[in-house]
Amino acid sequence: MLKKRIVFCILCALFTFSSLAECEDDFRRGLFVSVIQDPPVLSSRRDIGKLIVFARSARIKTLSVQIYYANKAWFPSKIADSSPYQECLKNLSEDPLALLIKEAHANGIEVYAWMNMLSLGANKDAVFLKKYGPDILTRNLKKKRALRDYKIDNQFFLEPGDLRVREELLGVLGEVLSAYPGLDGVLFDYIRYPDKDPVYGYTPMNIERFKKATGNKTIDESSKVWKDWKRDQVTEVLRLLVDRARKARPSIKISATGCMPYSRAYLEAFQNWPSWIDRGLVDYVTVMNYSPHPDEFEQWIVKAKLKTADFKKVNIGLGAYKLVLWPDTFKQEFRICQKSGAGGFVVFHYGSLLENPALSDFLIKDRK
Fold first, then answer.
1. pLDDT tens for each residue of 75-87
2. Assuming Cys at both sites, which of 65, 188, 303, 335 could form a disulfide with 256, CB separation 3.0 to 4.6 Å?
3. Which residues of 327-362 are buried (b: 16+ CB within 10 A; e: fewer)?
4. What is the per-residue pLDDT across 244-293, written as a single tens digit (0 to 9) for each?
5. pTM summary value
6. Residues 53, 55, 56, CA angle at the centre, nearest 5°?
7. What is residue 65's three-state secondary structure?
8. CA 343 → CA 23, 41, 218, distances in Å?
């Protein structure tokens, strides 16, 4: 009788442990690895190794590694400015992303290529600008006297309704997919209009295409037709990129970033990211929930959840960069992510975790 009880208890314990492990496995742990940290991870073999050790210790399942930013490439490119890649190559004597992918896979970690698509950052010398001039930048109705007048929130934004922009971005993506057959996925970032004073889209090509498609002779900024058009242009850019990626690599996973709160995404950035999930356009949306206030952080999640048919396909972006000095808030928001019903979280970003060991240690030690 005693032996039966012992066996029963062991089986119960194993079942409980298995259930917890399965639950934990279902919760995706991700990490943004940004080139804005100094030095960038891809510039050093030692730093790549440290990243892999940390990711494994913190049970990070996906590394989203920034390799395209401000029209600069950390990969071999003939379309974008590949000087960052050439510099990294000189330091490592081998392709840095290929090395990272190899080391990550050896430790059971997936790697996504994180690409900033419709933003040129503050790069006034961007290859695309030299090729086409400011005509490819989205614009409002204010008079433009110089290139600096096109800046929005200290960035140059490409016009999603410009067919030349789409072709260039498809070319950049094609280079990445060709160079790295071992990539597990792609994370498309900045698939949106600017969300600051959102009166944009007034480029000659976008206006001409709008008028031809709708039959409208003029544009009313407040009209539903114009706003829907802009949302459609944003979604079409993503659709084209996804089609190109999946034709080249049918098994590749696709994620895209979504603005938060949802009202900001829909009304200002003209980004209808819940529809990207609902129509199966992407595998995941990573929502940038970067409020440093836990109550607001949770409220934004609740409202977003109401808009999404399958919240398991949402990853919550956790803004460590705003919480470096407030590790308790970071922990609190992490717990909110776990209880939200989302599929997982992605911390923005690795460099911020290195600034305060209290954040990185928490991710390593947490077992809830």
1. 999 999 999 999 9
2. 188
3. beebbebbebbbebebbbbbbbbbbbbbebeebbeb
4. 999 999 999 999 999 999 999 999 999 999 999 999 999 999 999 999 99
5. 0.92
6. 65
7. strand
8. 11, 27, 44
